[in-house]
Amino acid sequence: MREGLFIKKNIEKWKEYQYERTKDPDEMATRFTELVNDLGYSRTFYPQSKVTQYLNALASKIYLGIYKNRKEESSRIGRFWKTELPLVIRKHHRELLYSFIIFISFAILAAFSAAHDQTFVRGVLGNGYVEMTDENIAKGDPFGVYKDGDKLSMFFKIALNNIKVSFYFFVSGIILSIGTVWLLFMNGIEIGAFQYYFFAKGLGWKSILVIWIHGTLEISSIIMAGAAGLILGNSILFPGTHRRIDSLKRGTRDGVKILIGLVPIFITAAFLEGFVTRYSTMPVWLSILILLSSFSFIIWYFVIYPIRLSNKMKNSASPQKLS
Q: CA-based, 20 to 30 A from 29: which of 49, 64, 287, 299?
């Protein structure tokens, strides 16, 4: 084929590839393949032609685009945890605070009610659980419930259940946040009654050292899942200057990001509950170390780090003053 005919046959395609860029990886791969074929033909029959140089440059440009997309995808996960999720959390610190206050308020209310009504704990936790725990206390093993069953199956069961519960907290927010508040109420009441029960039995400090090994991460994540539900509900109630549907989309996106961020924490909490909590006679220093590590992580990643990152980005975006 003469060079002029070769150019005439393919020039429109080459111009499209040059000026109409695409970010679709499949389309980029198709274009690169076709250009490599054209370049191979050109090098064979017109090795010294400018069209060969042109095709070589165009193919190289698309190749670099493919490489850049792959590099961005590989760094996307790291960017999510390092920047994207903390900024979303910082944006919704108010909802996180509301979720914490609601949960803790109901937990305190439950403890107060249990202190003045001996039947309250049984009404919340159920007769079966209370009687079983009473039997374990009589045997000298008050936390024996955590030693039942296979470690691995217990781990998977707890992890899946916690993730499912967090999803319910989020989705329930669609009912104008009422559903999420109700779930925070139910869980807060349960935790308050549960914790008071052990304090009433003289096992308060021991229960903290054992149960909160996994409970620190688990309950903190439940509160943050509640925040995700409030974000969803508030996006409908308070759209601000946005259209309500656009506000809902933003709220859904931010809430889902928070739920994704909670998955590793739920998995870690399930691991601690399935494999570590059962060792209720572990050294006190080890229990305290795990508790402090979990608590410090929650405070740092979900409170301190988002604030610092947000301030840092604001300062870097602000114009520097001339001295």
A: 49
Tokens of 239: 């759209």
Instruction: Specify the range with the lowest mean pLDDT, choosing from 2-16, 54-68, 218-232.
Output: 54-68
Answer positive or negative: Cα dihedral of 113, 114, 119, 125.
Answer: positive
CA 123/CA 117 separation, integer angstroms: 10
* Average pLDDT of the segment spanning 57-78: 67
Look at the block and give the residue holding tokens 């009473």: 134
Residue matched to tokens 């017109």: 46
Provide the whole-model pTM: 0.76
Rounded CA gap, 149 and 57, in Å? 64
What are the angstrom distances between the C-alpha of 169 and each of 162, 175, 233? 11, 11, 11
Concatenated DSSP letters of 99-160: HHHHHHHHHHHHHHHHHH-TTHHHHHH-HHHHHHHHHHHHTT-TTGGGGSS-HHHHHHHHHH
Closest CA to 278 of 214, 217, 216, 203: 214
